[in-house]
Specification:
The chain is α+β, with helices and mostly antiparallel strands. It has helices at 4-9, 20-56, and strands at residues 63-66, 71-78, 83-87, 93-97, 101-105.
């Protein structure tokens, strides 16, 4: 069986050829999966772990920003319901899903880290 890659590259094996050339397509597919893992899957897993750590360190009094761009101060946390109560104004409190908190601004920090899109 002649692979498409070998045909395009003009490296059609001879009728009796065997050995490494017959495994070359499998090596290419394997290398493609390894590259996808290191460039796509691994960084995303790392980012999810950092976000989970940030949410677990969330406490009352933290200044947060939500995925919708709302800034506020945490006044209550319900771990059972995964809800955070955020005070936006002196009289306005909003319940937000914990997963929608994208950043925490600690005291003395210049700004929040840039969030990838």
């Amino acid at each position: 069986m002649v692979s498409i890659i070998e045909t395009v590259m003009g490296q059609v094996p001879a009728a009796g050829a065997s050995g490494f050339q017959s495994f070359m397509p499998l090596v290419m597919v394997g290398a493609m999966f390894v590259i996808m893992y290191f460039f796509l899957i691994r960084p995303q897993m790392k980012q999810q772990k950092e976000h989970a750590n940030m949410l677990s360190s969330l406490k009352k009094g933290d200044k947060v920003i939500t995925a919708g761009g709302i800034w506020g101060v945490v006044v209550g946390i319900s771990d059972a319901e995964n809800v955070v109560v955020v005070r936006i104004d002196d009289t306005t409190k909003v319940e937000i899903g914990k997963a929608y908190i994208v950043g925490i601004k600690k005291e003395g920090a210049a700004a929040l880290p840039a969030q990838p899109k």
